[in-house]
Design goal:
Layout (H helix, E strand, L loop, with lengths): L18 E2 L3 E7 L15 E6 L9 E6 L2 E8 L3 E7 L19 E3 L4 E3 L11 E13 L7 E7 L5 E7 L5 E11 L8 H5 L2 E7 L9 E13 L2 E16 L3 E4 L5 E3 L1 E4 L2 E4 L5 E7 L7 E9 L2 E7 L7 E3 L12 E7 L3 E9 L3 E10 L9 E6 L2 E7 L3 E8 L9 E15 L4 E12 L3 E6 L3 E2 L5 E4 L5 E4 H4 E2 L9 E6 L5 E6 L2 E6 L5 E10 L5 E11 L6 E3 L4 E5 L4 E3 L2 E3 L7 E4 L4 E3 L5 E3 L5 E10 L4 E11 L4 E10 L2 E2 L10 E8 L10
Parallel strand pairs: 34-41, 43-50
Antiparallel strand pairs: 1-41, 2-32, 3-15, 4-5, 5-31, 6-14, 7-14, 8-13, 9-12, 9-14, 10-11, 10-13, 15-30, 16-25, 17-20, 18-19, 20-24, 21-25, 22-23, 22-24, 26-29, 26-31, 27-28, 27-30, 33-36, 35-39, 37-40, 38-39, 40-41, 42-45, 44-48, 46-49, 47-48, 49-50, 51-52, 51-53
């Protein structure tokens, strides 16, 4: 199967419409255009025959597909004719026996009945097949002792043809003659046959005759080969539909014209001046251009120029092969008169190639016997039938149908004979038939994916993951091996990235707006699919953020503590702070100032507001009041009396006077 692929790549695409780069050619292979050319399927060929100029089936010719070949057989039989020459002279004056049978006869009971004088004028050039004696006679009674002999004479020595004796009854062969073969007895040349003489001899035995012999006529019948002539034709046709013909057809609406008008027949000059038709021809991938063919009537000339070549155009003829077939061509057709319907550039110079041989006898076939091969309505080859092998290798690009059309390939043999009448058998064997030039280009096509849809988010929403391995497919690369890329027009609003086979779409924190996300999916050879979508992030006012506040703080009563707060709001810098305790205030730097007035554990709530949203946190303030003790005197007593010295084993009392100058209540101590 031959294929011409034209890829149209749009340079501009509407926004948000998936796009793809050009598909990639990865190889090509030759494709046969006649699958039935190996003759392995007899049903692929329609075989018929005709006799002469009539539509009647041939009598001696037939075709068949068997044993891997197409055979066209002519089996002509012997063409026999026969004639009888009757005796015209009798040396025994047996005149009633002369000539054709007429019921008058010569009889004898002893004397010989002899006749001769046979005439075969006009037949001396014919080839003899056999000779017979035709004898109209009778023997009216049974032969008991007597006999009747038939003797052939003048063929060297006398030869006994037949003897009748001891019959069981009368013999009557007057109306139904006895025909006796003379093969091996008579000389087989016409002169000898004309000199033939027969003698009918009645042989008596004893004193009385049993019967008599009666002879009406004696003929010499010859069978010979009659020269003849005629012809028969056998043809085999194979039809192929939807043919991928390796051709580039250019019509009258292609290219540019000057001085020409588009008519129903094609392009014709619109005035007395020569018109020009120009067009370019591109080379199909991994192929070569073949021959150029111009179809139409009238006078025209063809000029070609290689693409990117300098110099003048070169004139060529229709059917010529293009120079530098691997290069694109500029073609100009100058039309002087008539009408040009189209131009064809075949690809790879398609040829019909056939191999076969002729066997059998050819002596009786005329020189006008031939083997012919046609493609469509074009006769592409005609060779004489000659003994031995033959081959056909002819260009057929002009005869192929348009791409996708129907093609018929026919093989015919005309067996025309002018023979001497002898049998003859001739067989035309065709072992293979093909049309070269067909091709199939292998492409790696772009990946195909589901179109991207626009997305909407609120500010600080969670992102999404698009699973591209289930959204995409490729003719050669598996989905998990496709290469992904994702780009955001503004990553500060929406980030686009690839995670494994997912495209991650993530709104940036505290950002809003509209961005374009472009996604590209590529296969192993770089063919790609791309699409884009719009991601819209709607702004949402954020609450303030309060950080740096501990859960519990400790403050000495009467002291001041300053806590550094981290307060922020992505939408505003105007924030207000408040607390649930009057002794908790905030300075100009938004630091919290603690000045407790009462000891104990106090719960405090700090609130931050941006005017719309507010946040708060609770924490505990532990306020401590410590005593300030001063030892004024210490007295050591023994037995109630103050002493200044003590000894080991003494039992003493110590009296101390402590003053509390702080706010805390001292603990009882003894």
């Amino acid at each position: 199967m031959g294929v011409v692929l034209v890829i149209l790549l749009m340079a501009a695409l509407a926004p948000l419409v998936p796009s793809a780069t050009a598909d990639t050619v990865i190889g090509a292979e030759e494709v046969g255009l006649i699958e039935a050319g190996d003759f392995s399927e007899p049903e692929s060929w329609q075989i018929s025959s005709t006799a002469g100029f009539s539509s009647n089936p041939a009598e001696h010719s037939e075709g068949m597909v068997a044993d891997g070949e197409l055979s066209l057989t002519h089996n002509r039989p012997d063409n026999f004719q026969q004639t009888i020459s009757w005796a015209t002279y009798s040396v025994t004056n047996s005149n009633a026996t002369l000539g054709e049978p007429d019921s008058y006869y010569t009889w004898s009971k002893g004397p010989n009945i002899t006749m001769s004088g046979y005439d075969f004028s006009g037949l001396h050039g014919m080839q003899l097949a056999n000779v017979s004696l035709v004898l109209h006679f009778s023997i009216p009674d049974v032969l008991n002792q007597d006999s009747v002999r038939v003797i052939l004479q003048n063929h060297d020595s006398d030869k006994l043809v037949v003897t009748y004796a001891r019959t069981f009854g009368p013999i009557y062969r007057m109306t139904n003659p006895m025909v006796l073969s003379l093969d091996g007895l008579a000389l087989t040349d016409w002169t000898s046959l004309e000199g033939t003489q027969f003698t009918i001899d009645y042989v008596s035995t004893g004193t009385s005759d049993d019967s008599e012999v009666r002879v009406d006529a004696v003929g010499l019948r010859v069978k010979y080969h009659q020269p003849w002539y005629s012809f028969e034709t056998v043809k085999a046709i194979n039809t192929v539909t939807d043919v991928d013909s390796p051709v580039l057809d250019i019509g009258p609406f292609d290219g540019t014209i000057t001085g020409l008008s588009q008519e129903s027949c094609g392009l014709a000059p619109d005035g007395p001046a020569v018109g020009e038709w120009s067009f370019d021809v591109e080379v199909p991938p991994l192929q070569q251009l073949g021959r150029i063919h111009v179809f139409g009537t009238g006078n025209h000339t063809i000029w070609v120029l290689l693409d990117d070549a300098e110099g003048d155009y070169t004139q060529i003829e229709s059917g010529d092969a293009l120079a530098s077939p691997e290069s694109s061509q500029h073609v100009r057709v100058e039309i002087e008169d008539g009408c040009v319907s189209g131009v064809r550039i075949d690809v790879n110079d398609p040829h019909l190639v056939a191999h076969g041989h002729v066997s059998g006898s050819l002596e009786g076939l005329a020189e006008t016997s031939y083997i012919r091969i046609a493609v469509g309505s074009s006769l592409v080859a005609s060779i004489p039938i000659q003994h031995g092998a033959f081959s056909v290798d002819v260009p057929v690009g002009h005869a192929l149908p348009e791409r996708g059309g129907e093609m018929t390939v026919g093989v015919a043999s005309r067996f025309q004979w002018s023979s001497d009448g002898t049998a003859e058998s001739t067989v035309v064997h065709i072992q293979s038939m093909s049309i070269t030039g067909g091709y199939s280009v292998h492409w790696d096509y772009d990946p195909e994916c589901l179109a991207l849809e626009d997305m909407s988010f609120n500010e600080d929403d969670a992102g999404v993951h698009l699973p591209m391995d289930v959204r995409c497919s490729d003719d050669l690369t598996s989905p998990e091996d496709l290469v992904l890329s994702a780009t955001s027009s503004d990553p500060g609003v929406v980030e686009a990235s690839v995670v494994d086979q997912y495209v991650r779409i993530q709104p940036a924190r505290d950002s809003s707006g509209e961005v374009t996300i472009e996604v590209v999916v590529s296969d192993a050879l770089g063919n790609s699919w791309s699409d884009s979508m719009t991601a819209t992030v709607t702004a949402v006012e954020d609450p303030p953020v309060l950080d740096g506040l501990p859960l519990v703080v400790y403050v000495e009563l009467g002291q001041t503590m300053v806590i550094d707060l981290d307060i922020s709001d992505p939408d505003t810098e105007s924030l207000s702070l408040s607390s649930s305790r009057s002794w908790v205030t905030f300075d100009a730097a938004d630091d919290m100032v603690l000045t407790p007035v009462e000891a104990g554990t106090h719960s405090v709530r700090v609130t931050v507001s941006d005017g719309t949203n507010e946040v708060y946190q609770d924490f505990d303030v532990v306020v401590t009041a410590k005593p300030d003790l001063l030892v004024e005197t210490i007295d050591v007593r023994r037995d109630g009396v103050s002493v200044t010295e003590v000894a080991d084993g003494d039992v003493i009392e110590i009296h101390a006077y402590i003053r509390n100058e702080g706010r805390g209540v001292p603990m009882q101590w003894t």
